[in-house]
Amino acid sequence: MDKKDIIVIGIAGGTGSGKTTITKKIEERFGEEVTVLYHDDYYKARHDLTYEERVKLNYDHPAAFDTELMIRDLAALKSGAAIDCPVYDYAIYDRIQRTQTVTPSRVIIVEGILIFHEKRLRDLMDIKLFVDADADVRILRRILRDVKERGRSLDSVITQYLGTVKPMHEAFVEPSKKYADVIIPEGGKNRVALDMVLNRVQFHLSSLREEQAVSGPDQ
Questions:
Q1: What is the 3-state secondary structure (H, E, C) of 186-212?
Q2: Which of 76, 94, 173, 177 has the highest CB neighbour number within 10 Å of its CB?
Q3: Phi, psi dihedrals of residue 122, rounded to the nearest 5°
Q4: Residue 48 pLDDT class (50, 70, 90 cuts)
Q5: 3-207: CATH number
Q6: Cα separations in angstroms, 71 against 6, 7, 30, 125
Q7: What is the pLDDT at residue 214?
Q8: How far apart are alpha carbons 53 and 59 in whole angstroms?
Q9: Backbone CA torsion sign across 182, 105, 70, 187
Q10: In what helix (H) or strand (E) does residue 38 lie, and over which residues does it extend?
Q11: Taken in order 26, 81, 85, 163, is the CA torsion positive or negative?
């Protein structure tokens, strides 16, 4: 796969803004032609700490992520190579020993709250989308997600939101909006914006098919 055949789409935004909804819509539409990298899987391994100590860490600061590894992995995918992506377990607040093999596709999506913070990561993206939503909507979505899907208590979600999520959003996530090519209010509920994104991906894939029809299949 030629490097120029791959398009990288960064999808950023605050917690509960609707990033994953848009990512899933793209995956549903284009299937195996899409590869997704989640910044959350690149939380630093903290095997040296106890569970109680890991719970208290700030997971919304740029220093919580192994972004260096993500940059190397994304560069490898863009060059056509497969990677061993780390896997993060929210239940234990740590990476697990197992990794997941990720192979490159024509469309690579990078998703996360802080993916626009580091310039070298931004520079690997062709399209940068920032999904926006009101703070009250985001906290309600986070509560529902963390309690239902991640087994967190309501008190712990609220404590974490007020202690680190909200201040880190204001300090790092919101300012990164300026790097976006497109800002999408209301996330996946914004049908017009979603259709624009899907059409852009479709155009990229259709253009590649036309080129291959003229030049012949990949050698």
A1: CHHHCHHHHHHHHHHHHHHHHHHHHHH
A2: 173
A3: -60, -40
A4: very high
A5: 3.40.50.300
A6: 16, 15, 24, 11
A7: 76
A8: 12
A9: positive
A10: strand 34-38
A11: negative
pLDDT at 218: 54
CA dist., res. 61 & res. 165, Å (int): 9
Exposed/middle/buried for 49, CB within 10 Å: 0-12, 13-18, 19+? middle
The residues spanned by each domain of the chain are: 3-207
Which structure tokens are listed for 48?
């040296």
- For 72, half-sphere exposure in the C-beta direction (CA atoms, 13 angstrom radius) is 9
Query: What is the side-by-side order of every strand in the sheet holding 107-111?
Result: 34-38, 107-111, 7-13, 127-132, 182-185
Angle between helix axes 19-30 and 191-215 (nearest 10 degrees) is 40
In this prediction, residue 113 carries a pLDDT of 95
Distance between CA atoms of 131 and 129, rounded to whole angstroms? 6
CA–CA gap between residue 11 and residue 43 (Å, rounded): 17
Give yes or no for residue 219 having a pLDDT over 70: no
User: What per-residue confidence (pLDDT) applies to 9?
Assistant: 98
- Per-residue pLDDT band at 195 (split at 50, 70, 90): very high
Task: Return the C-alpha torsion angle 200, 202, 205, 206, nearest 10.
Answer: -110
- Structure tokens belonging to residue 169: 């959003």
